[in-house]
Amino acid sequence: MKTSLKLEELAMLMLGVFLFYQLELSWWWFVALFFAPDIGMLGYVLNEKIGAITYNLLHHKFVAITIYFFGILITSEIIQMLGIVFFSHSCFDRILGYGLKLKKGFKFTHLGEIGN
Length: 116
Known about the structure:
This protein is 62% helix and 8% strand. The chain is mostly helical. A three-stranded antiparallel sheet has the order 1-2-3, covered by helices on one side.
């Protein structure tokens, strides 16, 4: 089952790459911003609850898809790109086993404990 979930995430990551390809933006944007959602980890400096909230906000696929469609609505390729990059990064993280964080600590995710 774990393999099928990783393949599903890989397919979604490829969808993100395809959607970015449809934009008229340089690929360096995708590469440069790919790890930008990880800035959400800075919330852990304050405490575990805030860290989980900030991390999850920048790694939640619904948020990324909403940003993307908002970009379509206002015809902004920059906003669309942000949604695509956030979505793609979230898929990449899920392939590696990093899921949405639970409030009890960074290593506890909706996919299970990191490292187990």
